[in-house]
Write a structure and sequence with these properties.
Shape: elongated
Order of helices and strands: HHHHEHHEHEHEEHEHEHEHEHEHEE
Strand order of the largest sheet: 2-1-3-4-5-11
Helix content: 40-55%
Number of helices: 14
Strand content: 15-25%
Structural class: alpha/beta
C-alpha cells in the first residue's frame, strides 16, 4: 500500500505566493479587489503546487456549485438507445465543459422518480437545470419551478396557462414538416401519409400541423400515430399499408420511425422510392446514412440545440439562435417571448 501525498492547502499557496490566505481565496474563487501582479503570483503558486480548490468550501463562498442538472423525462432504455439524446447531451456537455461546469444526468423512469428529482434540485446541489423530452401531462415543470432553480427547456412548452415565464430552445418543427411534405408532393406523389410522433409532445404535434398545412383535409386513414422508435415505425407502417395499400409517400416524424417504416416496405415488396417515397426528420447521421436506401430527411441541429440551452442557462448571450418570439413554431415571430427556435433544412438522399 502506498501513502498518498497530502493535498496542497490554501495556506501553502499563500506562503508560496507571499500573500495572505484571504488574498488567495479571492483569486481562487474569482473575486475582485486583488491587484494583477498579486493575482498572477497566486495563480503561479497554484500551478506550481498543483492546488485544487475544495469544491464544498468554494460553494460556501461563491454560492455556486459549477454543476448543472440535465433532466430527461424518458426511461433510461429510451435515452441510451436513441442517438437524439446522445447528440443533445454532447452539445450540452461541450458548452458546460467550456465554462468549467459539471453535467449531472437525471432520468425519470416513471412518476415515482419525479419527487426524487424535485428533491435533488431543491437541495442546492446544482446551479440550474436543462429539461427536455417533456410530455403534456408531465408534472416535472411544476415540480422544478417549485424547486426554485433556473431552468431552460428543450422543446416548446406544451402548457398554455400563461402563468410560467419559461425559456426554451426548439427547432422549427412545423416549418420543417411543411418542407418535407412539399418535397413529396413536388415528386408527384398524391397519397402522402404521415407517421406521427407521440402527440403528447409538442414536437410531434407541430410536425403533424406542418403536414396538415400542406395536405389540408387529407384522408384521415393516412395519419397513423407512432412513438419515435424503430419498432413504432414498423407497427405504424404495417397499419398504414393495411389501411391504404395505395399509399405512395410517407413522411415519418423522426428518422428512427422512418427506418422502421423502410424495413416494413421492404418486407412487403414495395420499392423505395419507386413505389413509396419516404422522408424522415432529424438527420441523425448514424441512422439516416445507414438506412436502405439512405434517408431523405429534415435536418435539425440537435447538438447545437443542446449547446444553446446550456449557454442560455449560464447567461452567455441569447444563444446565437433565431428567436421565435410568439412561440408558434414558425420561426422568428412578432412578440417578446423567450423561445429560441432554430431553422431546419431538407437533406435529399435516395429514399425520396
Amino acid at each position: 500500500m502506498t501513502e498518498t501525498a497530502p493535498r496542497p492547502t490554501l495556506e501553502a499557496v499563500a506562503a508560496r505566493a507571499g500573500v495572505s490566505r484571504a488574498t488567495v481565496s479571492r483569486v481562487v474563487n474569482g473575486g475582485d479587489g486583488v491587484r494583477e501582479p498579486l493575482a498572477e503570483r497566486v495563480r503561479r503558486a497554484v500551478e506550481e503546487l498543483g492546488y485544487v480548490p475544495n469544491q464544498a468550501a468554494r460553494s460556501l463562498v461563491t454560492k455556486r456549485h459549477d454543476a448543472v442538472a440535465v433532466v430527461i423525462a424518458e426511461p433510461e432504455t429510451r435515452v441510451f438507445a436513441d442517438p437524439f439524446f446522445a447528440l443533445q447531451l454532447r452539445g450540452i456537455s461541450k458548452e458546460l465543459t467550456a465554462h468549467d461546469n459539471q453535467l449531472v444526468l437525471l432520468l425519470t423512469e416513471g412518476r415515482d422518480d419525479h419527487a426524487r428529482v424535485a428533491r435533488y434540485l431543491a437541495g442546492g446541489h446544482v446551479d440550474g437545470a436543462l429539461v427536455f423530452s417533456l410530455h403534456l401531462d408531465d408534472p416535472l415543470p411544476g415540480l422544478i419551478q417549485g424547486a426554485g432553480v433556473p431552468t431552460v427547456f428543450g422543446g416548446r412548452p406544451g402548457w398554455s396557462d400563461g402563468t410560467r415565464d419559461v425559456v426554451y430552445v426548439d427547432s422549427d418543427n412545423r416549418g420543417g414538416a411543411r418542407e418535407a411534405v412539399r418535397h413529396l408532393v413536388g415528386l408527384g406523389r398524391r397519397r402522402v401519409a404521415h407517421l406521427t410522433g407521440p402527440l403528447d409532445q409538442t414536437s410531434a404535434a407541430d410536425r403533424l400541423e406542418g403536414f396538415r398545412d400542406v395536405m389540408g383535409d387529407t384522408d384521415p386513414r393516412l395519419v397513423v400515430e407512432c412513438d419515435f422508435t424503430p419498432g413504432g415505425g414498423e407497427r405504424a407502417m404495417r397499419e398504414l399499408l393495411d389501411r391504404c395499400p395505395d399509399v405512395d409517400a410517407v413522411f415519418a416524424a423522426n428518422d428512427l420511425s422512418a427506418a422502421g417504416a423502410l424495413r416494413v416496405l421492404r418486407e412487403r415488396g414495395r420499392r423505395v422510392p419507386e413505389d413509396v417515397a419516404v422522408v424522415g426528420f432529424d438527420d441523425m447521421l448514424p441512422v439516416a446514412e445507414q438506412t436502405d436506401p439512405p434517408l431523405t430527411t429534415v435536418r435539425q441541429d440537435i447538438e447545437e440545440m443542446g449547446r444553446i440551452m446550456a449557454r442560455l442557462l449560464l447567461g452567455d448571450g441569447d444563444g446565437d439562435g433565431d428567436r421565435d418570439r410568439d412561440g408558434d413554431g414558425d420561426g422568428p415571430g412578432r412578440g417578446s417571448g423567450p423561445g429560441v427556435v432554430l431553422p431546419t433544412t431538407l437533406v435529399p438522399r435516395a429514399s425520396a
